Amino acid sequence: MTRQLIVFVASVVGLTLFALEATAQSIPDLSGVWQRSFPGDSSLVAAPPMTAWGQERFDLAKPIHGPRTTSATEANSAELNCLPMGFPATYYRPRPFEIVQLPDRAMMLFEVDHFWRMIYMDGREFPEVPLHTWNGYSIGHYEGDTLVVVTRHMLGWQSENVQRWIDRLGHPFSDEATITERIRRVDEETIVNEVTIDDPTAYEEPFTGTLTFRSRDFELSEFICQELMLSRLPEMRPE
C-alpha cells in the first residue's frame, strides 16, 4: 500500500469516527428502564374540553380508577379485557418500560402486555393508506435534547364494551387522534414527556399535559395478561 493511499484511508477513517462521535453527541441519551411517578388515577389535564361525541362516550365509561370507580367485574376498560390501551394510557400502568435508541429508530419495550413500540427516525412519512392498529404508527425526530414522537392511526373508541381511553378515568379518543410526545431527560434519574392530544372528534381543541418517569435499575419481567385475568381473584375477572 502506497504512502498516499495509507494517508487517504487514515483520513477517511478519522473523518468517519469524527462524524460518528458528533452524531452520538447530538442525540440525547434517553435509554434505560423507566416507570411512572404520577398517580394512576390522574388525568392528563384536569378537564379535557370534550365535544358532544366525547362527552357521550365518557358518560358510558366504567373505570376502576378515579371518582367514578366501578368494580372490576362491571368495568369496560381495555386493560381488563387484555387489550392494548394505546397512548398515553399505557404509561398509566404501574409497570416499567425500556427505551432503546438505534440510528434509524427508537424502540419502547413495555412490560405491560409484553409489547414493543417502534418509532421510525429515518425521515419517512405516514402511510398514504392508513392502517389503524392498536398502538398506531409512530414517527420521531430529535430536536436538541428532546425526542419528538408523533403517533397516528390508533384504533380509538369502538363500542360500549370495547373502550379505549387516554387515561384510566374514561376520557375517550377517536380514530382521528394525533398524539405528539416531547420526551426529554431532565437529570440522570428523570425524564418528562409533554403529551399533546389533538382529536377534533373527541375534544374541542388540542390540550397538553406532562408525565414524569423515574429511572429503574432492573430488567423487565414477563407479563401475561391472560394469566392475571384467570387468576383466583374474582374481582380481577371481568364477565
Question: What would your notes on this structure say?
Answer:
- A 9-stranded mixed barrel has the order 1-2-3-4-5-6-7-8-9.
- Mean pLDDT is 87; it is low at 7-22 and 233-239.
- The longest helix has 24 residues, at 3-26.
- A hairpin with a 5-residue loop joins strand 3 (105-110) and strand 4.
- The N and C termini lie far apart (76 Å).
- The protein has 239 residues and is an alpha+beta fold.
- It has 2 domains: 1-28; 31-236, no CATH class.
- Helices cover 16% and strands 27% of the residues.
Oligomer designation = single chain
Largest sheet: 9 strands, mixed, barrel
Tell me the number of strands: 9
Q: What is the number of domains?
A: 2
Helix content range? 10-25%
| Helix-strand pattern | HEHEEEEEEEEH
- Residue-averaged pLDDT: 87
Which regions have little confidence, pLDDT < 50, spanning 5+ residues?
7-22, 233-239
How many helical elements?
Answer: 3
Give, in spatial order, the strands making up the sheet with the most strands.
1-2-3-4-5-6-7-8-9
Shape: globular
Radius of gyration: 21 Å
Query: Which structural class matches the secondary elements?
Result: alpha+beta
Distance between the termini: 76 Å
Strand percentage lies at 25-35%
